[in-house]
Amino acid sequence: MSSFEEAGTEETVTCLHMTFYHPCQGDKMMFRCLNFCKREQVRADEMPKFGRDSNVCRYNLMDTRVSRIQFSLQFYRKLNSSEFCFEIKNMSKKTKLIVDQTELGYLNKIDLPWKCIICFGDYQILAEIEEGESGDYFETHLHLAEVPILQERCLLSRQPIPENSISSSSFSSQGKNPMEIDENES
Predict the structure, then answer these.
(1) pTM here?
(2) What is the residue extent of each domain of the chain?
(3) What is the band of 79 on the pLDDT scale with cuts at 50, 70, 90?
């Protein structure tokens, strides 16, 4: 047998992609301590924390308006399932954490959706989970956004709505073209 045939099956690794944005990142360099564009392994039993305290947090944000520990993540396997997930917990007493439309107060936690936007203060983080099989560790892959994540997502998901609140899609479904009407006509 060749060494290729004897080699163990390679497991895929769950990867959490996180894209960071702050409007002042160019001036204040609050992301200078983050390792962008390189995957980083994290042990499954570790709870990585994000915040400004470099003694406690694995991912440091260099901003005095960020809490010492802003939030933490926990990697886990769902009960009676092979699916791995992340749980996010707000560790800030002063700042609410918003995950998509869910607002988390201090010590509140929820499962991280497979794709979501995490917001606190002026920070926006797009989180995307790439599924894997390994239970020993996961990876993080950090990215830096040039434009606001919320703005970019809104532009992709919404069409402009005219002042009369009738969208162009409702006209196309009727097969008619829009007609200009004087606002005094009924």
Answers:
(1) 0.76
(2) 13-150
(3) very high
pLDDT for 181: 52
Torsion-angle region of residue 172: left (phi > 0), alpha (psi -120 to 50) or beta?
alpha
The position carrying tokens 């997502």 is 153
* pLDDT tens-digit map of 146-169: 999 987 555 444 445 444 444 444
Give φ, ψ of 62 to 5 degrees. -85, 75
The answer to whether the beta carbons of residues 127 and 87 sit under 8 Å apart is: no
Distance CA 170, CA 176 (A): 9
Instruction: Judge contact between 103 and 96, C-beta under 8 A.
Output: yes
CB atoms within 10 A of CB 90: 25
The domain defined by 13-150 folds into Tumour Suppressor Smad4 (2.60.200)
